[in-house]
Design goal:
The complex is a heterodimer of chains A (about 260) and B (about 240). Chain A has a domain of about 55 residues. In chain A, about 35% of the residues lie in helices and about 25% in strands. Chain A is built from nine helices and twelve strands. In chain A, strands 8-9-10-3-11-12 form a six-stranded mixed beta sheet, with helices on both faces. Chain A has a four-stranded antiparallel beta sheet with strand order 2-1-4-5, covered by helices on one side. In chain A, a hairpin with a 2-residue loop joins strand 1 and strand 2. In chain A, helix 4 packs across helix 5 and helix 5 runs parallel beside helix 6. Chain A is globular, with a radius of gyration of 19 Å. The longest helix of chain B is centred in the N-terminal third of the chain and has 36 residues. The radius of gyration of chain B is 21 Å and the shape is flat. The two termini of chain B are about 30 Å apart. The chains are: A alpha/beta (about 260), B mainly alpha (about 240). At the A-B interface, helix 2, strand 8 and helix 3 of A face helix 5 and helix 6 of B.
Chain lengths: ~260, ~240
């Protein structure tokens, strides 16, 4: 387990006083936390506690109502123009986005492209890689996720576990600094879950990517994370190293939650 | 049916006009459908309002009156007479393009939001997302509805007889019926069969496109596409 202590370094992700409402429903309130570069953080907690919203805010799929979010020191919502802070335009947002990758619960692969197409599309069109470079990168990543022989398959011809591996490879092909994992094994058949989690652990230990994961897999959270944040009602109610949080949780809400999930 | 040969030959003289108007009308319809359909979803309110006026205006008024207007009223305003076949194609395209715009909009909006989010997560631009991810999937959904629209357009070419274009309906009505009045039943039956054959050709082409498009997104043609296609005999 790599150490959490990376004090002094600028955080890779920083939430400062973030609030998010959907109508009258306050999903996140006064949320502040930071994630250091290369740190692996898992978000756990009951459904509807705002965990996925955090990832969606980072991926700029949602906008926050108050507070600031920065990635690598760059604000998602504002940019500097002529010395003044103005709302971010599409280009600024896209530039920050390039540092962030996301793997979704439902994979979200493009059905109108082959596996290869899914992997080379953004690297060529967004990062400007040549076709050959992107293709080489796609092959290398598919080998890494164990699907080197399925490069010309259609996503619909693959099992859920294989599709999720392709989605992970697709996110990695953009060489992100930050990878967001949104309940990536929740839609998978039980026998496929372990393989995908093993793959993520391998990637986690062999790269310096910063991970932020929402998961209901407590075993994975314990083994993979440097830090676990327990959420409830849009707030972090406990933030600790996994050894501590899973063995001696301080907050009674955490105790109740872990009790309920582990005894499931 | 002693005069079958004569009937066929006179009606056939009208076929080129019917076919040209249909094909050109379909091409114009496709272009206008995509332009207006995408404009209906534009982020600019002005663009949305303009395309909404086009769609409601052309969809909500009579095709025959539109044709008269372009053919008889417009020359008075702009000072030149538009060639009848062009006027016909223009009205067919404008009118069916208004319906097609809604088909395009509906199909684009039916592509799951998750696909857009997948593309956003890969930092694709809005144009790239539309062109590379959304439209290729939406087209599969559009094809059955476009099949219906194109068949309607084919049948609407009969309206061109109002502006003296010698397409097949006019040939039947103006040339054959006055001369062979007792055989009007056979003449119009023949006319019906000609329209039916042409519509079956359209359906056959569209069904082929549906299959190709569905295979591209890795699925079989949807149940919807099978039930909506009108050419029941062609599978």
């Amino acid at each position: 387990m790599p150490s959490v202590e990376k004090s002094g370094a600028d955080p890779m992700i920083a939430f400062d006083g973030v609030e998010k409402r959907f109508g009258d429903n306050v999903v996140l309130s006064e949320l502040s936390f930071t994630v250091a570069p290369g740190e692996h953080v898992c978000l756990i907690g009951p459904s509807g506690s705002g965990k996925t919203t955090i990832l969606r805010l980072l991926m700029t799929l949602e906008k926050c109502d108050a507070g600031t979010i920065t990635v690598g020191g760059t604000s998602l919502s504002h940019m500097e123009k002529n010395g003044k802070l103005v709302p971010a335009d599409e280009k600024h947002v896209r530039d920050v986005r390039k540092r962030i990758g996301m793997v979704f619960q439902q994979f979200n692969l493009f059905p109108n492209m082959t596996v290869r197409g899914n992997l080379v599309e953004a690297p060529t069109r967004v990062l400007g890689l040549s076709k050959d470079e992107a293709d080489a990168r796609a092959k290398e990543l598919l080998d890494l996720v164990g699907l080197g022989d399925r490069i010309d398959s259609h996503p619909t011809q693959l099992s859920g576990g294989q599709q999720q591996r392709v989605a992970i490879a697709r996110a990695l092909a953009m060489r992100p600094d930050v990878l967001l994992l949104d309940e990536v094994t929740s839609a998978l058949d039980p026998e496929l879950v372990a393989g995908v989690l093993k793959l993520l652990s391998d990637i986690g230990s062999s790269t310096d990517i910063t991970f932020l994961c929402v998961t209901h897999e407590m075993g994975f959270a314990r083994d993979f994370s440097d830090r676990v944040m327990m959420f409830d009602g849009g707030r972090v109610i406990e933030d600790a190293a996994p050894e501590k949080l899973f063995t001696a949780p301080e907050h009674e809400r955490t105790q109740a939650f872990l009790h309920a999930v582990v005894d499931r | 049916m002693d005069n079958l040969g004569t009937f066929l030959s006179v009606l056939s003289q009208g076929l080129p006009f019917t076919i040209i108007a249909t094909v050109a009308g379909i091409l114009l319809t496709i272009v206008l459908s995509f332009v207006a359909g995408l404009a209906l979803m534009s982020s600019s309110k002005t663009v949305r309002v303009i395309s909404r006026i086009y769609v409601e205006g052309l969809r909500g008024t009579s095709e025959v009156v539109q044709l008269f207007w372009i053919f008889f009223a417009l020359p008075v305003l702009v000072g030149f007479q538009i060639v009848p076949i062009w006027a016909g194609i223009l009205v067919l395209g404008l009118n069916h393009g208004a319906y097609g715009a809604e088909i395009v909009r509906g199909a684009v909006q039916s592509v799951p939001r998750a696909q857009v989010e997948g593309a956003i997560a890969l930092s694709m631009t809005p144009a790239q997302r539309m062109r590379r991810v959304i439209l290729p999937q939406a087209v599969v959904e559009m094809l059955p509805s476009f099949n219906n629209l194109f068949i309607q357009l084919l049948k609407s070419t009969a309206l061109l007889s109002f502006v003296s274009i010698n397409e097949i309906t006019r040939q039947a009505q103006q040339v054959l019926v006055p001369r062979f009045n007792p055989q009007a039943f056979q003449i119009f039956l023949l006319l019906l069969v000609m329209y039916l054959i042409m519509s079956l050709v359209i359906t056959a082409i569209m069904r082929t496109l549906e299959r190709v498009a569905a295979a591209r997104v890795g699925r079989k043609p949807s149940a919807r596409s099978r039930s909506q296609a009108t050419g029941a005999g062609i599978a």
